[in-house]
Amino acid sequence: MKIFLFILPFLILSSISCSGSKEVNNVDVEVKILEVNAWLNLMPGFSPGSFHLSGEFAVYSDTNNVIMDVKLEEILVYSNDELLYDIKPVFKYSRNEPDYSLSPKNIEVYQFYNESELEIKEVLMANNLINVEIKFIVEDEEINLTIDDVEVTRAY
């Protein structure tokens, strides 16, 4: 039983991780989702409540260029197959880390979030899982990633 409790967090984190690769201008580029957080703000005094989404992604490249042209175009949020939100996210450069284990890979890490409060869709009050599709443009090449079964937490 103790082994299962030790392994459970790794199983949850590995289910979130997804990545997409593409060759861009003769450079191998990979975008990887590191973290996605979704929650409903249901705190008293903040009525009617709001939906929030944030996270972190990394762009891996086999070049030593410090910053590539990276854009986070949109985030689509679904419950089952129903589109709930089409978010134009805010994203910002977070840090640059050389990945010596994958040398000569270069890693650029970004954070993202929805800027404005979004109205809570009724389906989220009954269903706490969403699917998230994230659309990136890296050096004019489109990379789309989907993360299934993101848990929507509630803040009271």
In whole angstroms, how far apart are the ends? 32 Å
Strand residue percentage: over 45%
Shape type: elongated
Roughly what is the average pLDDT, rounded to an integer?
A: 82
- How does the helix and strand content classify structurally? mainly beta
Helix share bin: 10-25%
Strand count, sense and barrel status of the largest sheet are: 9 strands, mixed
Number of strands: 9
Order of helices and strands: HEEEEEEEHEE
- Uncertain residue ranges: 1-15
Helix count, DSSP H or I runs of 4 or more residues: 2
| Rg, Cα atoms, Å | 17 Å
Structural commentary:
With 156 residues, the chain is mostly beta strands. Helix content is 12%, strand content 59%. The chain contains two helices and nine strands; from the N terminus they run αβββββββαββ. Strands 1, 2, 3, 4, 5, 6, 7, 8 and 9 form a nine-stranded mixed β-sheet that branches. Strand 8 (129-138) and strand 9 (141-155) form a beta hairpin. It is elongated. The two termini are 32 Å apart.
Which features does this protein show?
mainly beta, single chain, 156 residues, 9-stranded mixed sheet, 2 helices
Question: Secondary-structure map with pairings?
Answer:
Blueprint: H1 2-16, E1 18-24, E2 27-41, E3 50-61, E4 70-79, E5 82-87, E6 90-98, E7 106-113, H2 123-126, E8 129-138, E9 141-155
Parallel strand pairs: 2-9
Antiparallel strand pairs: 1-2, 2-3, 3-7, 4-5, 4-8, 6-7, 8-9
